[in-house]
Write a structure and sequence with these properties.
Blueprint lengths: L3 H12 L11 E5 L10 H7 L12 E7 L5 E8 L10 E6 L11 H13 L17 E6 L1 H13 L11 E5 L4 H12 L8
Parallel strand pairs: 1-4, 1-5, 2-4, 5-6
Antiparallel strand pairs: 2-3
């Protein structure tokens, strides 16, 4: 009798969930690299995701998340439907930090530090009805320096201070110039701080 109670409570919790349940519902965040923007291929890529054969429904939500040069972060729904009425539960986000993408001194950590608190905020996307984007499975996709950005975002999301999100998946897309990618990632992501007495 005791073993049935947790199963019944678990089933009840799923049925009473405030968001509709959808197979594989989650958040996909796609970002550009150094000297990039979202209009060249990030938005076209995001528009192709719902057309994939394995996409779990027909309705989705598409947002643009913008990090301004002062590191303020905003969002706007640019396509699809509200997440509360989506049959797939999929949220596709184009992360745009192009206002800082031409500055070689902008570190990946700067963009990640600005972005992650918004992913954890229960008020950042009001259409989620008081839930944060980080409550859903997150797939991070970054091109070139964007690969460093999503790696740092994953690290911050997994950090205890931010709630210890343990299951993460990130995809780093290589730039055309491997030497350039290596120097950018090395100089921005692994910047040691040396102090002396």
């Amino acid at each position: 009798m005791r073993t049935k109670f947790p199963a019944i409570m678990g089933a009840a919790a799923l049925l009473l969930s405030p968001l509709p349940l959808a197979r594989e519902a989650g958040v996909t965040i796609i970002t550009h690299g150094f000297n990039g923007n979202v209009t060249d291929w990030i938005i076209p890529m995001a528009q192709q995701i719902p057309g994939h054969d394995s996409f779990p429904g027909s309705a989705f939500s598409r947002y643009r998340m913008t990090v301004d040069s002062d590191r303020s972060v905003s969002q706007s729904r640019v396509g699809g439907v509200s997440p509360l009425v989506s049959d797939s539960g999929e949220i596709i986000i184009s992360l745009d930090w192009s206002s800082s993408a031409t500055d070689p001194f902008t570190a990946s950590q700067d963009i990640a530090n600005a972005t992650v608190p918004s992913l954890l905020s229960t008020t950042f996307v009001p259409e989620l009805g008081g839930r944060s984007l980080a409550e859903f499975p997150i797939h991070l996709i970054g091109h070139s320096r964007g690969g460093s950005v999503v790696t740092e975002m994953a690290r911050l999301l997994g950090h205890r201070e931010f709630g210890s999100i343990t299951k993460q998946h990130s995809t780093r897309l290589p730039s055309q110039n491997i030497a350039m990618r290596t120097s950018i990632h090395t100089s921005t992501f692994y910047s040691p701080i040396i102090t002396g007495n």
